[in-house]
Amino acid sequence: xxxxxxxxxxxxxxxxxxxxxxxxxxxxxxxxxxxxxxxxxxxxxxxxxxxxxxxxxxxxxxxxxxxxxxxxxxxxxxxxxxxxxxxxxxxxxxxxxxxxxxxxxxxxxxxxxxxxxxxxxxxxxxxxxxxxxxxxxxxxxxxxxxxxxxxxxxxxxxxxxxxxxxxxxxxxxxxxxxxxxxxxxxxxxxxxxxxxxxxxxxxxxxxxxxxxxxxxxxxxxxxxxxxxxxxxxxxxxxxxxxxxxxxxxxxxxxxxxxxxxxxxxxxxxxxxxxxxxxxxxxxxxxxxxxxxxxxxxxxxxxxxxxxxxxxxxxxxxxxxxxxxxxxxxxxxxxxxxxxxxxxxxxxxxxxxxxxxxxxxxxxxxxxxxxxxxxxxxxxxxxxxxxxxxxx
Length: 391
Description:
The chain is of the alpha+beta class. It has a domain at about 85-105 and about 235-255. Helices cover about 50% and strands about 25% of the residues. It has 9 helices and 13 strands. The strands form 2 sheets. A 6-stranded antiparallel barrel has the order 1-8-12-10-9-13. Strands 5-4-2-7 form a 4-stranded antiparallel beta sheet, with no helix packed on it. Strand 9 and strand 10 (about 325-330) form a beta hairpin. It is rod-shaped. The two termini are about 40 Å apart.
């Protein structure tokens, strides 16, 4: 018994030491040769493809699982109203350009000649008023008055005779009325001619002369404006209207371009959210496209493993299906956090860990978002090594 007791103690001590070592390396997921094992899930850059404007979806050209290249058309909105708006803005631009061209061309010779003629007529009218009536006009008015007086006297004599005969009942009342009417007309004509002669002798009134002067000044100003052509301010305003019309057309064309949405990246359609015929608001995702060529493993390391792990270190990633992929550590969180709740055991969930990312080249797109995977990070340079999924 004395020879067996020390041997038993040695065995117990060895087992205890091995258990401690196993607990240490298992808890920290590290290995004595400088390799750290982690587990996590594959993630990829997901881009939600959406329209910038509202409208009714006319067609969607992709479905879930389809591969798309950057620039491929994803969906198209109904463009009837947008095309009408472009046509309207294009017509407005033509009108603005025509107005500017007319101003730049200046006044036409016919317009200048017409304005000059109006100015000259106004000048002649004022001169006639200021000069007063000519002798010929006075003589003509006097002659007209003499003729009217003679006509009045003749009908006045006829009226006297008709009155006497009517009293004697020699003529009818109709004949008498006809003579009376003719006399009244002659008398009215005499008074009008007499008044005209008076006005001719007096000449133009002062207010008439002032009105003629104002008309002359207005005609002269209009002639000067037509001859000088459009003002610089008018041309500048017309140019501004042309620029405004150009901007409105560009905006309408841009809005029309927004009716077609394309994939911003090369990838795979992960989900579809809108069907043809539905009305969408700006920013509503139509599909979600994932870049499956460049994926990463999202994993966590505990505090004891955080120091040896560095950005740029090589890693080998393995999936449950048996595939292995090369990767490199691209990110290490600077702040610790509790292990995510999706970790299986409560013991693991209460640990403080650091989130890391391992970038993986996935040219065959075998790795999919959400897929579980294991990885071994080489913290020191060594020879050949590998990782087996599910270790």
